[in-house]
């Protein structure tokens, strides 16, 4: 049974509160004001902003000295230089705004640059994932584990597909050319929170993406690690939370997957 720390307890409370608010907005999507951020395919709504305010209010009340890094509000240093909340209030915004239920709330805690706790709430799927360093990974109160499949040809992978305004389109096309014939299937949900949680729970065997922010991946990293999997950079090197890319897997297929992904880079993605 999960023995959650006080920090994890407030993270869970904040994620649930934000998820409840987002569900209410999801029920009346036509009323939402939608804007573009960095480009026409990069969308934001008042739902994202309200969810982040909800999370920050609850986290700050519990730990006023911790720093805060949020997708919508940016970074704020706290008086406690060792701890930072990392928050994506609505991961999968495009899915959300198009009426697709595959979206989530991400809340993580970094201590001295290392993720020590993570929560991913998937409100429309009624799935609530939590993990804490040394405490295992859990979904709806049940312990979860990565899959045991050990051959790439038997594996189902998930990935992020670059959209308008994102880099590496030729590289991704080459990855697909090689991996679709070497695996049991490749999926794209459009929400990193979903994909990483599903690697942790054994639904997918691996997930990679080359253009991510820390708030996209932070909870998923510890979820996968505490579920028995591995998290690295997309080239197989040590994961850097602010490095912009990630690959998580059950561990057994990590090296064969790295071999393909690194071959694509070596060939220039053509």
UniProtKB/TrEMBL annotation:
Source species, domain of life: Bacteria
InterPro entries named among the record's database cross-references: IMPase, Inositol_monophosphatase-like, Inositol_monophosphatase_SuhB
An annotated Gene Ontology molecular function: hydrolase activity
One of its Pfam families is Inositol_P
Signal peptide start and end residues: none
* Enzyme Commission number: 3.1.3.25
Q: Which leading EC class covers this enzyme?
A: hydrolase
State if Metal-binding is listed as a keyword. Answer: yes
| Cofactor(s) it depends on | Mg(2+)
- Name the catalysed reactions: a myo-inositol phosphate + H2O = myo-inositol + phosphate
Q: Which Gene3D superfamilies match?
A: 3.40.190.80, Fructose-1,6-Bisphosphatase, subunit A, domain 1 (3.30.540.10)
Keywords annotated in UniProt: Hydrolase, Magnesium, Metal-binding, Transcription, Transcription antitermination, Transcription regulation
- Similarity comment: family membership: Belongs to the inositol monophosphatase superfamily.
The record, for PANTHER family, names:
INOSITOL MONOPHOSPHATASE, INOSITOL-1-MONOPHOSPHATASE-RELATED
| Name this protein carries in UniProt | Inositol-1-monophosphatase
- Organism name: Luteimonas notoginsengisoli
């Amino acid at each position: 049974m999960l023995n959650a720390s006080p920090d994890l307890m407030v993270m869970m409370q904040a994620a649930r509160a934000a998820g409840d608010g987002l569900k209410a907005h999801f029920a009346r999507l036509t009323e939402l004001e939608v804007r573009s951020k960095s480009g026409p395919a990069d969308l934001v709504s008042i739902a994202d902003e309200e969810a982040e305010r909800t999370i920050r209010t609850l986290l700050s009340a519990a730990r006023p000295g911790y720093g805060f890094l949020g997708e919508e509000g940016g970074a704020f240093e706290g008086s406690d230089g060792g701890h930072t909340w990392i928050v994506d209030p609505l991961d999968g915004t495009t899915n959300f705004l198009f009426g697709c239920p595959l979206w989530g709330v991400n809340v993580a805690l970094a201590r001295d640059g290392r993720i020590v706790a993570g929560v991913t709430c998937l409100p429309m799927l009624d799935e609530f994932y939590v993990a804490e360093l040394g405490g295992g990974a859990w979904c709806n109160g049940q312990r979860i584990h990565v899959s045991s499949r050990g051959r790439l040809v038997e594996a189902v992978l998930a990935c992020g597909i670059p959209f308008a305004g994102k880099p590496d389109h030729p590289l991704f096309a080459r990855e697909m050319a090689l991996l679709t014939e070497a695996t049991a299937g490749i999926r794209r949900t459009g929400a990193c929170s979903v994909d990483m949680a599903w690697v942790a729970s054994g639904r997918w065997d691996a997930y990679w993406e080359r253009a991510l922010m820390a708030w996209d991946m932070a909870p998923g990293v510890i979820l996968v690690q505490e579920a028995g999997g591995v998290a690295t950079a997309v080239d197989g090197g040590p994961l850097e939370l602010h490095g912009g890319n990630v690959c998580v897997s059950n561990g057994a297929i990590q090296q064969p997957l790295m071999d393909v992904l690194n071959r694509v880079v070596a060939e220039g993605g053509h």
